[in-house]
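We treat protein structure as text, and this decision shapes the records that our systems exchange. Because each token names a local backbone shape, the row as a whole describes the fold. An entry from our holdings is shown next, in its original layout:
>
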Amino acid sequence: MPDTATHFQQYGMKKHDARRLHYDLRLGWNGVLKSWAIPLGPSERTGERREAIQVEDHRREYLSFEGVIAKGKYGAGTIMFWDIGMWRPLSECADVDASLRNGYLRFTLRGEKLKGIWILKRRPDKLQNEEKTIWDLVKEPDSFARNGHPGDILEEAPNSVSSGRSLEEIYRHWDKPPRKPKSDGTLFDMQISVAR
């Protein structure tokens, strides 16, 4: 019998300054983080598609990492903990594994920055890259969508939900003891290795 999601799971969005700046969507599922790289970052405008490149699953321990990965290592660059919260598939996608195989996952986010209903939809085969599986991340119409409203969440809230720092500040202070996180929860207190 396939696993189904009836309760909220961990969610995170990283801001990652690697070869080029992008955002990393992480959805906790079956002990790992299902992961997509989003070159332009998420958009809260209904129907605005943002390319989401599926990457390998990550360990759950990576969810709360913020810091600098050294050159020559996988994912080298500065990583910001841009958003955190919970996610849950909507009822028609409760069998998450089947939904991912079928290329369509409709879910709700309860993040500190991103909220409401979203869709991940795999692009047709003719639009795929030979080396990567390409999806689209799309915001559905709801009370959290920015239809007709000015502004962009990426510009309005550019800093870390954990430390309040910018990418530049994270890089500059990486070899110094971090200041006390804003959250008093244990999720932000994790000290983990980034070695693979």
Notes: The first strand starts at residue 9 and ends at 17. Confidence is low (pLDDT under 50) at residues 183-196. Residues 38 and 69 are 19 Å apart (CA to CA). DSSP finds three helices and nine strands in the chain.
